[in-house]
Amino acid sequence: MDVNKNLKILIVDDFATMRKVIRNLLKQGGFENVAEAEDGAAAFKLLKSQPVDFVISDWNMPNMSGLELLKAVRADEELKELPFLMVTAEALKDNVVAAVKAGVSNYIVKPFTAEVLNEKIEKIVKNLAA
Amino acid sequence: MDVRFINPFLNGTVHVLKTMAFVEPNAGKPFLKKDSIARGDISGIIGLTGSARGSLALSFSEGSILKIVSNMLGEDIKSLNGDIKDAVGEITNMVSGAARKELETLGFNITAAIPTVVAGKDHSISHVLGGPSIIIPFETANGPFVVDICIGNLEGK
């Protein structure tokens, strides 16, 4: 099954450069329908106001962290099934366990390549469709 | 400072720059630094707490960081602009994450704060523990940079 490359993907990261890097890596995988938010709070507001198919979020951010955003998404009746990929420098076991407990769809540790990012997205989307 | 702290930061730095910027830095011999003057033109600094505490700084020459960030973003950047400052913070964050992951295997559970970035000739780096710090010097094809770490375990070593 081919993954729909028109998926609307929301990138959440407080570093504009990292958002740009992820946007470039997604483009290499054929994903060009992308929105951005600078923290969890801005992301949640955007998710409640427009349709998004997939979230890629950093962990450490001011205002609302990636983990808090994930918990808010999973607790929201409209958003709870949204695929959520955590992309973070936090690779400690406790972090991974906390994200899994909160319902993360998958987890990528920075630094990472375009291949890894696109493989994870395709895996999540295919699992959803199965 | 416990010498076991050095390799995780060295390995983390090489891993991050190779993966995200396709730059292969060559590490030189670490040495002790007693003053607070940065060895580069722009530095990212991050506080570390947990079963060891202190701080990590990455201090880049202009030439090295322009090439690193240009490669990361896929565009030619010619001056130390906002993108560069932003990227230095993110690189510092990633190196800290990669090093802390390796330190976890040695029994150290360490968390990090949000990085800050300082630029300008002879700017200073204020380590949480005051100093002295260990410098790991690196060379790239476009200039040098250093990893500047001052970290101690809970026994103060």
Q: What does this protein look like?
A:
The complex is a heterodimer of chains A (130) and B (157). Helices cover 45% and strands 16% of the residues of chain A. Chain A has one domain: Response regulator (Rossmann fold), CATH 3.40.50. Chain A contains 5 helices and 5 strands. Chain A has 130 residues and is of the alpha/beta class. The longest helix of chain A is centred in the C-terminal third of the chain and has 16 residues, at 114-129. Chain A is globular and about 35 Å long. Chain A has a 5-stranded parallel sheet, with helices on both faces. Chain B has one domain: Chemotaxis protein chec. Chain B is α+β, with helices and mostly antiparallel strands. The model of chain B has no long low-confidence stretch (mean pLDDT 91). Chain B has helices at residues 6-21, 62-73, 82-105, and strands at residues 26-27, 31-33, 42-50, 52-60, 110-112, 116-119, 133-140, 143-153. In chain B, strands 1, 2, 3, 4, 5, 6, 7 and 8 form an 8-stranded antiparallel sheet that branches. The interface between A and B is medium-sized, with 21 and 26 residues.
